[in-house]
Amino acid sequence: MEKRVVLAVVLTIGVIFLSNVLFPGPEMPPGPVAADSAMVDDAALSTELDTAPPSAVGRDTVAPETPEQAGELQSDPGMDEPAAAAIAETPADTVTVTTDLLRLQFSTLGASLVSAQILEYESFTANGVGENVAQLIRDGDRVFGFRVAVGGDTVRLDSQPFRVDRPEIALSETNPRDSVVFRYPFPSGNAEFVVTYGFELDSYLVSVSGRVEGIGDRGYSVLTSLGLGLKTNEKDSQDDYRQLGYVVRGQSGGIESVNLDKVSPGELRTAEGGPFDWVAVKNKYFVIALVSLEEGPRFGGLLVMGEPAEHSARMVASIPAPAGQGFAFSSYLGPQEYSRLEAVGRTRDLEHVNPYGWRWMRPIIRPLVGIVMVVLAWMHDFLGLEYGWVLILFGVLMRVVLFPLYQKSMRAQLAQMQVQPLMKELQTKYKDEPQKLQSEMMKLYKEHNVNPLAGCLPMLLPMPILFALFFVFQSTIEFRGVPFLWLPDLSLKDPYYIIPLLMGASMFLLSWIGQRGMEANPQMKMMTYVLPVVFTVMFANFPSGLNLYYATSNLASLPQQLYLSKERRAARHKADQLKPKDRGDPGGG
C-alpha cells in the first residue's frame, strides 16, 4: 500500500511540474465576443490595430448617427498625412502625480499614461538605472489613450494634444485625494472630450472617468489601451515573461488567462465570455487591471493583436458610455498583493488575476490559496515575524494540523500488518481462484475490522493543500526580494543549494525511519534512495521559500515518524507471534 501511495504522489507531482513546463497556461481560442457585449467589426479592427498607437475599433448598440452628427466628433477633418505626422511629433507636456505608493507620468498627447513606478518595490533587472524603482510600462509604450466609437465611426484621440489643468500633483496627509483633468476640444468647436484621473495617497487605484460634451444624450463606446505588455523587473526575465499574459473575468464568473507568447504576430484575438467585470495584463508579480464599477456598465470586449517583438501584444478594451452618463472605471496599477486585490475586486475575484493551477484544479485550489494567504499575512503582520520565520512556523503548524490524518493512516497500516500473515495464507490457498480469493479477503478485512483504503486516503487528502502551497510559493509577491539568513531572496533559488540538500536529506531520513519495522520489498528500498535524489534535483531551482517550507515540514515530521516506527515494530512483533495453529482455517471452514 505504501508503495502505491508513494508512486501516486510522485506521478501526480511529476504531471504538475511537466505540465507547468510544457503548458504554461490555458489558451482561449479566438472567437467572437458574446452577443450582449460590445460588437466588434473585425475588418475595421484589423486596420486600426495595424497603426500606432495601439487601439481598436468597436461599436455598441447605439443609434446610427447622421453624417453631420458624426462630423462633430472628427478629430481633425480633412487633415492630410504630413499634418498628422507633425502632430505626432509635437513635443508633449508631462503631468507627474506622486502618492505614497506610485509615481505616475501622463502625456498630454492622448491623455495617456507613459510611466508607472511602484515606489515600494525595486527593479532587479541588470540594466536598472537611477532609483531602480519597479516600472510597469515599457519604454515608448502607453496605457489608456482613448478613441470614441459613435455609430459606425471611430474618432482617434489617442495621439491628439490635450489641455490639462495642472502640471504636477503631490499627494500628502493634508491632501490625501486629488485629480487631474484632460480636455480635448474637437476642431468643429461643438464638442469636447473630457477625461479625469483621480488618485488617493495610500492606494494603487486610479479612478478614470470621462464624457463627450456637446453631443446631447447619445450613447457611444470608449476604447482604451492596456499597452503592449508589462515591463519586466526581475532578475530572471524569462521566468517573468512566461507568466506575462492578459486575463479577463467574464459574465459567468470564470477567469481566463492567456500568455502573450501564445498570440502569434499579426494574429487578432477577441476574448470570449464578455461582458467583463475586469480586464488585465499581468506578469509574475505585477498587474495593470481595468475594473468596471459595480453600479456601472461592464467592459464590452478585449481585443488583442500579436506583435512581431517577443512577449508583446496590443491589448484594447471597450466600455460603453450610456446616453447622458459618460464612462467610468477603476484602474489598479501595482503589485499582486492578495489583500489589496481582494479589496479592489470585492466579489469579483481580482485577487485571482494570476490563476493558481489549471482550470480543472481551480475550484479546489483557489479557496485553499485564499486561506493560506490570509494565514501567512496574519502571521507576518500580527506576530511581527519575518517571512522566513513565517514559513518555518507555518511548516511546523501544517505538520501539527495534519498529524491526526497521518496518525489515522499509520494506524490503518498497522492493522493491515497484523493480518498480513493471514493474507499470505489466503493468497497461497486460492492462488488459482481469483474471485474466491477476493471474497475471502473481504471476509478477512471485515472479521478484523480492517479498511484497506484507510491507510491511503488520509495521506492523499492533504495533497490539495500541498499543491496550493506550491502555487502560492511560486508567485507570491510578499516573498519577492525578501532576504532570510544566507538567502538573498525567498522568491529565488538558494544560491548555495543548502535548503534543497537539507530537504532531500530530511526526505531520505523520513523514508528510512518509516521502513523500520516493515517488511520492505526491493522496490521500496530503491525508492528510499531514488526519491530524495529526484526531489532534490527537481527542487534545486525552485524558490528558496518553497524549499524552506518543505524542509521544515519534513524535519517537523521526524518525531512523529519515530513514534509510529516504534509502534510499527511492536505490531510486527505481535503478528510474528501468531502461529498458524492459533488462526484456524483461513478459508472459513
Question: Topology of this protein?
Answer:
Elements lengths: L1 H21 L19 H8 L17 H5 L9 H8 L5 E5 L3 E6 L4 E11 L10 E3 L7 E8 L2 E4 L6 E2 L3 E3 L6 E9 L6 E9 L4 E9 L6 E8 L9 H6 L2 E5 L5 E5 L8 E3 L7 E5 L3 E7 L8 E6 L6 E9 L5 E9 L2 H8 L16 H21 L4 H32 L1 H10 L4 H14 L9 H4 L2 H12 L23 H17 L7 H18 L4 H34 L2 H4 L6
Parallel strand pairs: 1-8
Antiparallel strand pairs: 1-2, 2-3, 3-4, 3-5, 5-6, 5-12, 7-9, 9-10, 10-11, 11-20, 12-19, 13-14, 13-16, 15-18, 16-17, 17-20, 18-19
Report on this model:
With 589 residues, this protein is of the alpha+beta class. It has 2 domains: 30-354, Distorted Sandwich (Beta-galactosidase, Chain A, domain 5); 380-578, no CATH class. The protein contains 16 helices and 20 strands. The protein has helices at residues 2-22, 42-49, 67-71, 81-88, 237-242, 338-345, 362-382, 387-418, 420-429, 434-447, 457-460, 463-474, 498-514, 522-539, 544-577, 580-583, and strands spanning 94-98, 102-107, 112-122, 133-135, 143-150, 153-156, 163-164, 168-170, 177-185, 192-200, 205-213, 220-227, 245-249, 255-259, 268-270, 278-282, 286-292, 301-306, 313-321, 327-335. Strands 1, 2, 3, 4, 5, 6, 8, 12, 15, 18 and 19 form an 11-stranded mixed beta sheet that branches. Helix 8 (387-418) packs parallel to helix 15. The model is unreliable at 1-8, 15-72, 75-88 and 582-589 (pLDDT under 50).
Coarse morphology: elongated
How many separate domains? 2
- Main sheet summary: 11 strands, mixed
Please, what is the average pLDDT?
76
Total beta strands:
20
Number of helices: 16
* CATH structural fold name of the largest domain: Beta-galactosidase, Chain A, domain 5
Give the N-terminus to C-terminus distance in angstroms.
29 Å
CATH class of the largest domain: Mainly Beta
Structural class: alpha+beta
| Low-pLDDT regions | 1-8, 15-72, 75-88, 582-589
Fraction of residues in H or I helices: 25-40%
Radius of gyration: 31 Å
Q: In percent terms, what proportion of residues is strand?
A: 15-25%
CATH architecture of the largest domain: Distorted Sandwich
